[in-house]
Amino acid sequence: MNPKVPIRKLVAEVLAELERLNYAKNTCNQYRRFYNRLITFADSIGETMYSEDLGNKYLRMHHNFDLENYTTFSHRTFRGQARCIRVLGDYQLHGAIMRRKTTKVPYERTPQFAEALEGYQKECVQRNYSEQGMRTRIYRVRLFIDYLDDCGLASLSLLTAQHLSDYTRTIAGYHKKSISAILTTLRSFLKFLYLKGYHEKDLSDDVPKLKQPHCPKIPSAWKPEDVKRVLEAVDRGNPNGKRDYAILLMVARLGMRVQDIKELKLTNLNWAARNIEIVQHKTKRTVNYPILDDIGWAIIDYLKNGRPQTKSPHLFVRHHAPFETFGPHANLHNIIAKYTRLAGIKLRTGAAQGMHSLRHTLASVLLEQETPLPVISEILGHMNTMSTSVYLKIDLEGLRKCALDPDEVFQYDDI
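Below the sequence we write its predicted structure tokens.
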């Protein structure tokens, strides 16, 4: 695309494209109002052609920020304004609107790609990808074929390495992990196209490779006293509180994953043996958790005095009609957020605050108690100890024992 385009022409094309992509009417109007103000600003300084520099000048003049100092943690008002400017830049460079999220309108497959996309989705099912993994994988492929459609590609057989190169440039500003995941998905999709005869050449080798060393970030763990305060903040005198208390205990004391707790059924409770036997959603392995005294009494209290009358086989259900299990994508974050707020706990900026962080805390406590890594791995339901070893980074006492004495090291310099 021509980097120098009259701003009025560029805006008209972008607004027309937004309507073609079925963006909501209110959203299109928001873009239109923003661009009208941008055009007025450009006229006031004698600019007729659009450039990123012009967009940044407008943001600095009227909103006190620009794309260089903007972050994803900025206020949502800034996010909308930054998005408007980035849409202009994307369309100017690539001739397409790079959608970060699908629109509310149900996704409609373009005719030329429908069969291949449906076939790839079936392939993912056959490979036994997890539901969440398959959802994100298909989402990335949809964004890719949306881009190809916007570029006017009539058939996947016409796909070239140049298309891949151009698309890769559109994700250059993403986080390294996001880029790596997108490129991995592209290779998988292109390999599928070749093996199933949609393309005569295997283009997966033409996708650039990004060296991504295995360096997981340090897990966020709570202070044990903060976990206690959260549990004490739960009002166990009402049905919601009885349910939430039992759920929080099972995560904090047993390290159970949220998905496993949501799928937990009454038949999984073996009161005679005092254990919970389930097949983990993530690993597909059968595991047993002990019904500790506090957890057992919390579950009994919920079953007798909190759980609504329902035919659902699941232990925990929603407390508003219909009284069924939680939705497949519910992460129960609202539960822990509610009691964190009631407990008056202030977490550091950027720290994980969800249910999964309670698993990190359990791992931290077990390490402090010098529990062997394989045992922690078994408790947390990891497939191997490599997944568990990341928690060694938060074992401060253990790390102190690994520290070298500089004087002792220097003694051997002359040897």
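The longest helix spans residues 25-44.
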